[in-house]
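Homework-ish question, so no full write-ups if that breaks the rules, but can someone show me the predicted structure for this set?
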Amino acid sequence: MTIRILIVDDEPAQMHALCDTLGAHGYETTGLASSEAALQALRTDSYQLLLADLMLPGMDGIALVQAARALDPDLACVIMTGEGSISSAVQAMQVGALDYILKPFRVSVILPVLSRALETRRLRIQNALLEARLREHAVRLVRMNDDLRLAQQQAERANQAKSTFLSHLSHELRTPLNAILGFAQILVSEKLITTEPQKRQFAGNILTGARHLLKLSNEVLDLAKIESGRLLLEHDAVTVADVLEECRVLVDPQAQLRGILLRSTCPEHLCVRADRMRLKQVVINLLSNAVKYNREHGAINVQCTPSGQGTVRIAVQDTGCGLSAEQQAALYQPFNRLGQEGGKQDGSGLGLVVTKHLVEKMGGELGVVSTIGLGTTFWLTLPQAAPVVVPTLAVLPTAQDGHVGTSAPVADTSTVASEATRPDPAITPNP
Ligand SMILES: Nc1ncnc2c1ncn2[C@@H]1O[C@H](COP(=O)(O)OP(=O)(O)OP(=O)(O)O)[C@@H](O)[C@H]1O
Ligand SMILES: [Mg+2]
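A: Not a homework solution, just the prediction itself:
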């Protein structure tokens, strides 16, 4: 690239001589007689070097260097001066000139000065680029450090949550295990004589403890699967009324024991997109909570309605003691039984955590509305699905009708619902 030099000298002969000499050495030169004209040229054109006389009419060389560098901080400036004004030349260097040349000058002196100034300019530009890149790196490093700190905090929190979970879990395991061991030891002991009714009672206690442990281990396994992303869900069209009825049948005996009336309303053909087995698990969890935390002779109302926005809402309303705002804020925390720890109702405080995860995994939402003293409504939404069409039976014409065929009824395969073909794993309500 050709180097462009702007020469400013009010002595025309000297200015032209300089332009010619430097031009002959490969530089592209522009000669001007005043600082004002030079500044105008610098505004419109780009130059690498300014070679200015110190003594100029109007704005002198020092002021020109200052103004020129304000326009282009990368511009290399060299001052030309007579023997008598070296102190002014030094002053020019203080305002940004890189060097000075004493008049009268020889080409052998000017050329090395100019190339030194241009080299300094090149190094300065390179330096500025490196500094900018360093600054960018520093900013990126600070950002990466912040991300790292955040990730570390998250990992520490997750670790802490795991430790808390494990210590709660070992506590939850220990209580029923101790009961099972204690009653089993009494039963096998030859020293401790037990009556038949006592034997039955102790065996019953062992069963209760074992069931509690089984439910707990199922819930912990579900949570582990959900958290590791290993929980595989079906996305079938499921008829809600059927699922609600199956859950009602399972939970009703519990409700009747406490004189609680369980009612359910749901449009007959309303369907949701869900995993049938997991939907049952969700509804049973909510229904058994509604029974456990209800008052004696209370009521449970299950309502299912299409929301009109492509979702279906299932609400389980009870007439229990209700949950305060603080209790609602602490819901869905593993093993947090919100004050029911010492109560009559059995549980481990995992049901709602699993329920919430399952509903969300099926593309829905779980929420709660509760008033102290009046009761609680847990509601969930799920994506609505087109109604499941029940298989219709068609009778093919028989030979007597004059056609070849069979009289056996066959299913119309185009209308077979996937839901009807899936096995329904056993789900038991909470004890
Ligand atoms: N319908 C409800 N009315 C009032 N409180 C409720 C209701 N449902 C849940 N809770 C409160 O929330 C807590 C957590 O419920 P969750 O179902 O997760 O656990 P749990 O019923 O204690 O045990 P389990 O793991 O057997 O379900 C309960 O212990 C209870 O205090
Ligand atoms: Mg529960």
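Now go work out the reasoning yourself. Hint: The chain has eleven helices and 14 strands.
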